[in-house]
Amino acid sequence: MSTTPQHLQPEHDWSESGFATRAIHAGQDPDAETGAVVTPIYAVSTYKQDGVGGLRGGYEYSRSANPTRTALEEALAAVEGGAHGYAFASGLAAEDTLLRAVLRPGDHIVMPNDAYGGTFRLVARVFGPWGIDHTPVDLSDLDAVVAAIEPGRTKAVWIETPTNPLLGVSDITAIAALCRAAGALLIVDNTFATPYLQQPLALGADVVVHSTTKYIGGHSDVVGGALVVADGAQLPVGLTGPTGTMSLADAVAFHQNASGAIAGPFDAWLTLRGLKTLAVRMDRHCSNAAAVAAFLDGHPKVAQVIYPGLPSHPDHEVAARQMRGFGGMISFRTGDAQSSLDVCAKTRVFTLAESLGGVESLIEHPGKMTHGALVGTALEVPADLIRISVGIEDVADLIADLTQALA
Ligand code: PLP
Predict the structure, then answer these.
(1) For residue 183, what are the CA distances in angstroms to 111, 114, 158, 188?
(2) How many A from CA of 212 to the centre of ligand 1?
(3) In the predicted model, what is the mean pLDDT of the chain?
(4) Where in the sequence numbering do the catalytic residues fall?
(5) Is the CB of 389 under 6 A from ligand 1?
(6) Which of 95, 123, 159, 164 to mutate to test the pocket of ligand 1 (most atoms within 8 A of CB)?
(7) To pair with 280 at 20 to 30 A between CA atoms, which of 148, 193, 241, 306?
(8) How far is ligand 1, taken at its centre, from the CA of residue 25, in Å?
(9) Which of 189, 214, 227, 331 best tests ligand 1's pocket when mutated (most atoms within 8 Å of CB)?
């Protein structure tokens, strides 16, 4: 039996509409009673039943489903082109739920050798002791991916593209074909690209992961995560769900409810509010980042600029094929660890802070900040690496700020 909650019938089918229209309207019909054009914050834990089991719209208890979260989940599914969306308390809560749904002790997962540090920590330090093996590989090297997949034991390949913080790009279509042949799931962390720039499910992925804390929320005011499951996606070959044979979507829904790391109604509302403007923000993030990358690329104190939009990026061609734009994230190196720390300390418009994807520009030193947990592992990042999240301020102010910080 399906564990996916029933939802109210939408007034209109938005599936044929453009991206921005879906982001603004899908799952967000005006309130049936009042006409309120914005989905209300349903700050409620439980729902009156019309006789025992007489649920209105499928709502019973807010861990299982809440109307504000439903609106976000439907909107996320619509913008990713998936069948079902699930909203969580953080990106890592979404990842944790997904990995519990698709892996069992003795299984193996292939992951990027420059994955987000928190993903690596979760897989290696939390799932490792529960009997899950992982192999970090350079996912831009398809031969290395083939070599890492252990047929029968590898239940999933985890792609992050572009990666955090080295902006590695992997070919989703090519890896999807390898996964299909091996009976493994393809999971894509689409946090950096966003559904506006990249549509992994259309390229063959089974499930998309997001830290909605980043571009989808977009205003650095909420922590959240999401999973979007492709239409018809199944569990890895040979795996039975917690209550018997079930689809991947139903297994995720079961685990979301069973573990309970859901997005609360206010967080869901903030995330939904951010999602509505994702398309216009991403256009500006992309154009500002392209100008900043070109500036850094010609700067005498910059040793290397890593940006998928630059022809010097080793996978620029793949990025150009599978992304609508190259995003707002840039990493660069000065050649000297102390010089990089000095640059991070000197910017004024770029705020020194972790996280990314908000309207304001941020700068950070991954080796000492976001990716400090990786020191001493195969995923350790260079000590002179600087990561910037290029915001949507006036680009001249961003370039002037970097000019003075590098002087
Ligand atoms: N995935 C990527 C690519 C990230 O950058 C992050 C956080 O920085 C996460 C997942 C984890 O998300 P959260 O911090 O919302 O738990």
Answers:
(1) 16, 24, 14, 16
(2) 8
(3) 95
(4) 63, 116, 189, 214
(5) no
(6) 164
(7) 306
(8) 26
(9) 214
- Residue 230 — pLDDT band, cuts 50, 70, 90? very high
Residues 137 and 20 reside in one and the same domain: yes
Q: What is the mean pLDDT of residues 323-327?
A: 98
Q: Is residue 12 part of a domain?
A: yes
Please give the model's pTM, rounded to 2 decimal places. 0.96
Percent of the chain with pLDDT over 90: 92
| Residue 92 and residue 205 in one domain | yes
Three-state DSSP string of 40-88: CCCCCCECCCCCCCCCECCECECCCCCHHHHHHHHHHHHHHCCCEEEEE
CB atoms inside a 10 Å sphere around CB 42: 19
Residue range(s) defining the domain that contains residue 130: 6-275
How far is it, in rounded angstroms, from Cα 113 to Cα 207? 20
Does any ligand 1 atom lie closer than 6 A to the CB of residue 211? yes
Which of the listed residues 248, 275, 302 is the one where a domain comes to its end? Answer: 275
382 ligand 1 Cβ < 6 A: no
